[in-house]
């Protein structure tokens, strides 16, 4: 398990490098090289202490020994030259094993600053090579900063997703295991630890948790197991076989280097990691594996891949070729789990269809596990799924299992913060029960699992596109509803009509031109950027009850025209649907298009590309329950009642701004007279370096109120230098664009030990208690007037402007007596309580609308 001291050392090393190497990949490479360098020296010292001789730093390489470069007589520039020369020459050192030479291949020092190098090597010097798993976990944590190699479509797989895939596939001690796009060897290490766990005396399958079952753990701090498993049931032959059975390929020498280190630090003395182009080389084509797991690159280079001719599927797309490769390289009893982009699931091009057909008809595919579209955040919001292959199980069933995961224990925003909701444990349990049903012969009951269902293979093959989107088949099934299912086409008065091709022109106060960009997410027309069409075409004028659907770009967006006055002409990227009033109310249909079921269908049906699009025929196929007109009317009336409450509450929330009614008799003073600006860190210089304090990056400041998220903590020794100091009740002001313009201000409260450090882009305002309350300062600097006056005084380049501290110091605020300040603050806080109450009302009644629509649409 990753211990705090080791994690802290890694964080310190990265903090030292970040000024010279902002790219996380470069940081990881430099830390990797330095660690191996240091560990070779540790092993030499250990050998000498045991009566042996140094074997790595001998002969002409003796001058590069770690202890030599730390000689105090070596100047800063000499250190840069010696260390830089050492890491470049190390791959030619005949005294070190080939593994280490491979790690140092193409290594170099990418900066020449002596102070940075000296601080960095000092941090590395705190690491000790002790043969423990602690170093392996530390290296996994280091690799967690490698989120994206985006140009190649590679995204590091989150640990809990790897763990889920490994648990599903369940690799055994005597099986060969391969990752043909291994990156940093995450799947291989996880498989190895899985085998150790299942072959340990202290393993309890009923009680021991898995990474994907953990709650409240930060994503980057998840380790494969929180408990030490030694694999003590494995004999020496088992261990030797296991070491030889685990292998990986990667086209990138940098990734190969990281994989080699990762494997080595996890006990593989001679890792089987090869620099190899899986898609274009044939050298290893005849090597097969019992277990293959991978998250291969999604993107293909311009012009596509140029593969050899041995693939079953003809394609130049890397994601197609990788899935083909994995399927074809399974042994007859082989199993695989591979992460794929949505193109593999439903793209209609020939290569994609042929691949899906092969997976089903040749009995590779057993299941498709849909992941939420934020698993790879903040590096990519790409939607992915896991293809589960099992050549034995696939022959025993005529079905494909579909599992939908909507929440994975973390929110799907950029920060990926832990949340309580986690579908992974249930998804895993349902898959385990499905596997057991083959052994027991009992029917697998999908009714127990709302997001799990089986679809017959012949059903998937019906349309000849072999679409693997579970939502498609879920949509086609009869929902649990008492009302008949109709398509949009069934209730139309006339054929759908595409809009006008006229260009926009300035608004003439007569005819408004309605474009996609004029419609907001709620289906209402925006009040800004109103234009007219360049040509008036009355056949495109909207009538009351017309429904518009976006055909391109913001597909799925809808607008219901309810006006009877004025002239509105709709544009060409919209499609008009006229509802037959004898069959349906347009408002009912409009509210159906606000349902989750509708947007799930949109995600399924839209054609991806540079711009997403859905045509009239496709929209016409959307199906939903249609109650009698009287029931539709009741539903609409109920929803409109809720909507009126939401609109009223939203009007309060959107228009409220705290306002101080200034009395002209109040004195006006400069902020510098009532505040201490950027207090000295010397106030806390006497504290122990191990004292933990709150760490507040800019992203944790809330724009809407003074609250500050306190999700991070650091020892004070890590943050004392290079960060801004503050304490409880200090006011934080963001001074840099665009945070200043956005009003990123806050009041520090609840800090760990009462102390905080944060971004150097904060100005700290400490109120003088005898003169002013912190909240009074906050209210004044959060006012629009503050930004209007100070924005023109910002200095710097267009992209990186800052408010000078002196300008803030000289800004004048009204200063009534403290009792008046307190009374005004009390009034504003009561107002803010009412605003928060209105926010809660919006959430409650939006959920009521969703629940009402879901009730009539029915659920599986």
Q: Considering DSSP H and I runs of 4 or more, what fraction of the residues is helical?
A: 25-40%
From the structure provided, what is the oligomeric state, counting identical versus distinct chains? single chain
CATH topology of the largest domain: Rossmann fold
First and last CA, distance: 41 Å
* Uncertain spans: 147-153, 215-226
Rounded mean pLDDT score: 86
Fold and architecture overview:
- The chain has 860 residues and is α+β, with helices and mostly antiparallel strands.
- The protein has 5 domains: 4-148, Ferritin (Up-down Bundle), CATH 1.20.1260; 159-465, 3-Layer(aba) Sandwich (Rossmann fold), CATH 3.40.50.150; 485-626, DNA methylase specificity domains (Adenine-n6-DNA-methyltransferase TaqI, Chain A, domain 2, Alpha-Beta Complex), CATH 3.90.220; 628-666 and 816-859; 676-803, Alpha-Beta Complex (Adenine-n6-DNA-methyltransferase TaqI, Chain A, domain 2), CATH 3.90.220.20.
- Helix content is 37%, strand content 16%.
- α12 links the parallel β6 (289-294) and β7 (330-341).
- α1 (4-17) packs across α2, α12 packs parallel to α14 (350-361) and α22 packs antiparallel against α29.
- The longest helix is centred in the C-terminal third of the chain and has 40 residues, at 818-857.
- The two termini are 41 Å apart.
- Its EC number is 2.1.1.72.
């Amino acid at each position: 398990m990753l211990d705090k001291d080791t994690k802290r050392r890694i964080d310190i090393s990265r903090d030292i490098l970040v000024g010279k190497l902002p790219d996380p990949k470069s940081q990881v490479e430099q830390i990797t090289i330095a660690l191996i360098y240091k560990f070779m020296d540790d092993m030499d010292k250990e050998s000498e202490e045991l009566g042996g001789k140094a074997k790595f730093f001998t002969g002409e390489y003796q001058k590069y020994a770690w202890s030599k470069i730390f000689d105090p007589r070596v100047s800063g520039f000499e250190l840069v030259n010696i260390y830089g020369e050492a890491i470049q020459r190390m791959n030619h050192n005949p005294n070190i094993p080939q593994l280490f030479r491979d790690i140092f291949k193409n290594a170099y020092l990418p900066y020449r600053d002596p102070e940075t190098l000296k601080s960095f090597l000092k941090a590395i010097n705190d690491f000790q090579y002790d043969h423990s798993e602690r170093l392996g976990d530390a290296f996994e944590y280091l690799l967690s900063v490698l989120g994206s190699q985006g140009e190649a479509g590679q995204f590091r797989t989150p640990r809990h997703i790897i763990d889920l895939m490994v648990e599903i596939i369940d690799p055994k001690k005597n099986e060969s295991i391969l990752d043909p796009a291994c990156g940093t060897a995450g799947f291989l290490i996880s498989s190895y630890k899985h085998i150790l766990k299942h072959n340990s005396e202290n393993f309890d399958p009923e009680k021991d948790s898995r990474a994907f079952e953990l709650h409240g753990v930060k994503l980057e701090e998840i380790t494969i197991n929180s408990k030490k498993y030694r694999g003590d049931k494995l004999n020496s032959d088992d261990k030797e076989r296991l070491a030889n059975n685990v292998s990986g390929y990667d086209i990138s020498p940098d990734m190969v280097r990281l994989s080699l280190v990762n494997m080595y630090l996890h006990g593989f003395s001679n890792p089987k990691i090869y620099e190899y182009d899986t898609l274009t080389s044939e050298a290893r084509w005849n090597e097969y594996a019992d277990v293959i797991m991978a998250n291969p690159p999604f993107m293909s280079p311009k012009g596509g891949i140029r593969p050899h001719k041995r693939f079953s599927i003809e394609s130049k797309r890397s994601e197609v070729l990788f899935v083909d490769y994995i399927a074809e390289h399974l042994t007859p009893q082989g199993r695989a789990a591979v992460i794929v982009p949505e193109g593999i699931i439903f793209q209609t091009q020939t290569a994609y269809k042929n691949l899906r057909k092969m997976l089903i008809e040749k009995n590779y595919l057993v299941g498709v596990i849909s992941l939420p579209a934020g698993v790879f955040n903040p590096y990519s919001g790409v939607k992915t799924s896991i293809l589960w292959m099992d050549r034995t199980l696939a022959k025993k069933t005529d079905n494909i299992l579909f599992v939908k995961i909507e929440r994975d224990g973390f929110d799907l925003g950029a920060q990926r913060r832990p949340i309580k909701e986690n579908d992974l444990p249930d998804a895993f349990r349902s898959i385990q029960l499905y596997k057991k049903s083959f052994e027991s012969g009992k029917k697998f009951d999908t009714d127990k699992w709302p997001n799990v269902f089986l679809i017959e293979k012949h059903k998937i093959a019906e349309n000849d596109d072999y679409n693997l989107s579970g939502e498609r088949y879920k949509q086609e099934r009869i929902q649990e509803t008492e009302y008949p299912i109709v398509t949009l086409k069934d209730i139309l008065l006339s054929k759908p009509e595409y809009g006008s091709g006229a260009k926009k022109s300035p608004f003439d106060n007569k005819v408004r031109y309605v474009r996609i960009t004029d419609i907001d997410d709620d289906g209402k027309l925006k009040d800004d950027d109103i234009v007219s069409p360049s040509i008036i075409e009355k056949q495109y004028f909207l009538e009351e009850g017309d429904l518009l659907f976006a055909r391109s770009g913001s597909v799925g967006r809808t607008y219901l025209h309810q006006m009877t006055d004025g002239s509105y002409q709709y544009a060409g990227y919209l499609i008009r649907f006229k509802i037959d009033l004898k069959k349906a109310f347009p408002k009912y249909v409009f509210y159906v298009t606000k349902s989750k079921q509708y947007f799930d269908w949109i995600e399924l049906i839209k054609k991806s590309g540079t711009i997403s699009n859905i045509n009239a025929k496709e929209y016409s196929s959307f199906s939903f329950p249609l109650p009698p007109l009287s029931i539709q009317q009741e539903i609409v009336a109920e929803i409109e009642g809720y909507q009126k409450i939401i609109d009223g509450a939203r009007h309060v929330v959107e228009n409220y701004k705290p306002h101080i009614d200034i009395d002209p008799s109040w004195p006006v003073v400069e902020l510098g007279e009532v505040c201490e600006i950027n207090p000295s860190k010397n106030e806390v210089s006497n504290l122990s370096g191990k004292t933990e304090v709150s760490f507040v990056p800019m992203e944790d400041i809330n724009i809407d109120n003074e609250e500050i998220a306190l999700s991070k903590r650091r020892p004070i020794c890590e943050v004392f230098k290079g960060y801004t100091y503050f304490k409880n009740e200090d006011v934080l002001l963001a001074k840099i664009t665009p945070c200043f313009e956005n009003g990123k201000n806050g009041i520090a409260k609840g800090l760990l030990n009462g102390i905080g450090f944060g971004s150097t882009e904060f100005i700290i305002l400490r109120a003088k208690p005898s003169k002013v309350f912190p909240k009074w300062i906050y209210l004044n600097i959060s006012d629009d007037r503050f930004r209007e006056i100070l924005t023109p005084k910002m200095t710097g380049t267009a992209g990186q402007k800052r408010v000078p501290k002196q300008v803030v110091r000289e800004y004048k605020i009204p200063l009534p007596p403290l009792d008046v300040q307190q009374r005004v603050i009390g009034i504003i806080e009561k107002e803010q309580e009412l605003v928060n109450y209105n926010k809660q009302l919006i959430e409650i009644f939006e959920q009521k609308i969703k629940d009402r629509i879901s009730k009539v649409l029915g659920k599986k």
